[in-house]
Amino acid sequence: MSYKLTLKEAQKLLDKLSLTYDIYAPKKLKAQGRYSDTDIIKYEKIKNIDEIEYREKSTYPMKEVISPIQQTIFYFTEDKYRESKVSTKPILVFSRACDINAIKVQTKIFIGNGGFVDYYYQRMYERIKFILMECDFESDTCFCVSMNANITNNYSLAVRFEDDGIHFEVKDKDFTNYFKGYPHSSFAPKFVMENKTKVHIPEIKDRNMLNKIKKSPMWKEYDKRCISCGACTIACSTCTCFLTRDLIYGDNSEVGERRRLSSSCQIDDFALVAGGGNYRTTAGDRMRYKVLHKFHDYKERFKDSHMCVGCGRCIERCPEYISITATVEKLNKEIERIEKEEASNV
Amino acid sequence: MYNPVKPLPHKIVNVKKETDLEYTFRVETKTKVKFGQFLQLSIPKIGEAPISVSDQGIGWLEFTIRNVGKVTNEIFEKKEGDTIFLRGPYGNSWPIEKFKDKNLVIIAGGTGVSPVRGMINYLSKNKDYVKSLHLICGFKNKECVLFKEDLKVWANTFNTTFTLDNEESKGFKKGFVTAFIKDIPFNTFGEDYEVVVVGPPMMMKFSGLELEKCGVDINKIWMSFERKMSCAIGKCGHCRIDEYYVCLDGPIFEYRIAKDLID
């Protein structure tokens, strides 16, 4: 069932929902961008409808609500570890289809991989419900359709923003009562069915091909171009890698905490082991590691989708204008070249 | 809700200096560990590090630690009676049931002797478990030799070759472990053998190549990997190689798979 609420009514609804739920949405933060006087859009807790930035893609992904860039996992007092605490209030997140699909990937790793359930992910994930936002903007970096991440039915409510009000589709009966008395609407959410940017998904047929690709000179280009800053993986909807870091409070070295911080396979110490050994020493090696994880290794392990939803945020954040779509097309060409070479050797 | 990354306090009951850089810490614990597994050792306010178990007994585990990092540096400050935090065990184990009644070959280098020491000690107490054990242990020099007392026992029990990379010494031949692989009588084993290789990456790589050269079946070789880890439960991503996670699918890999893994 769908409804249309005026902006005033929508605010009233949000107030009512806020009694039960923490509500997160993409929010524009003025002058917090990386260049002077530029803004960023990131997920934050909101109280007002007009805080929701629905006209543009958020700079940073929705995953941060569940797996934040940094969080305290333990507090130490003398010789005791105590887990950090979080609210038990359920969470509602205004989210795009690609970001919701990215959570499937995050969940596969944090809850599914190796039979270990990550305590810190699980305690957020089990409280979350999604409010699907339509994408009615054009972005030349989006390629969700190529990644099959443009459609989802994993949402409780769906919304369409208009100048005079907001349409709501109510899919989850937990929310039916909130909409009693509001006028019906014929709204059904529309999904993006075509992007300007299209990507052909590479087919790496076996390990022989995989290893030939790994040794390919194509990755050398990134030795020069990539500055190993890790901005792409921080902006990535699906990346999960993290490290842990302990810190001591300045005024009392007996107490401190252990934090989990987002980490990046693009940074040169990601594979550095004690004693100085490093398994990937060049930017090209690290780029190869990331791209093959996203377009081969993840799928090979989980027999599921690829580890990319085509949100395009990595392209927008890269200070060196490295494009994942262009990289994947280069990878396709390289596969073709290797196949031809193999055929001519037979 | 169970938190798999929460470390628990344990008492250090013995600290033994092996070399200037390597100490063995015996920790009181009821934790049961399979041969080849590792634990995360944790020091509040400093951090965590994955360390393989170098031996075990009733009520204790031993960890032989090389002092090369921030966490290990702090562990080296610990004395008998101090507390250390542990979580685990993690990872798979040496397929010891496959080794039963076979000719077993173990090639270990440096601190790589740690993850096989428990198994070798078990085999020296259970001599009939394997048909024979050929052991090659290599160290850089005399000062780097670990587990000196164990080496004596092993030399009296098994067919052993102990090596030093750059010098000769009583009981030790000069050269890399790879130089002595050809001396193992693989031609007398028939199909009845398995090979374990563990040590620094280059040593394992060249041991693998040398074994292949000696005609060893690649399906009968096992290797133990070491990678950076934050979580040891398949979440942090640091130890991933292709579709494998060293913490979950390793640390022990069949050479058949390991030889084609490029980090």
Outline the structure in words:
The complex is a heterodimer of chains A (346) and B (263). By secondary structure, chain A is α/β, with parallel strands linked by helices. Chain A has 2 domains: 2-69 and 85-179, no CATH class; 207-237 and 264-345, no CATH class. In chain A, 30% of the residues lie in helices and 21% in strands. In chain A, the strands form 2 sheets. Chain A has a 7-stranded mixed sheet. The longest helix of chain A has 22 residues, at 324-345. Chain A is globular and about 75 Å long. The model of chain A has no long low-confidence stretch (mean pLDDT 96). Chain B is built from 7 helices and 15 strands. The model of chain B has no long low-confidence stretch (mean pLDDT 96). In chain B, the strands form 3 sheets. In chain B, strands 10-9-8-7-11-12-15 form a 7-stranded mixed sheet, sandwiched between helices. A 6-stranded antiparallel β-barrel of chain B has the order 1-2-5-4-3-6. Chain B starts with 7 loop residues before the first strand and ends in a 5-residue tail after the last helix. Chain B has 2 domains: 8-90, Beta Barrel (Elongation Factor Tu (Ef-tu), domain 3), CATH 2.40.30; 96-258, Rossmann fold, CATH 3.40.50. Chain B has helices spanning 70-75, 96-99, 114-125, 148-157, 201-213, 246-249, 255-258, and strands at 8-17, 22-28, 38-43, 47-57, 60-66, 83-90, 103-109, 132-139, 159-164, 173-174, 193-198, 221-224, 240-241, 244-245, 252-254. Chain B is α/β, with parallel strands linked by helices and 263 residues long. In chain B, α3 (114-125) crosses α4. At the A-B interface, β4, α3, α4, β10 and β11 of A face β4 and β14 of B.
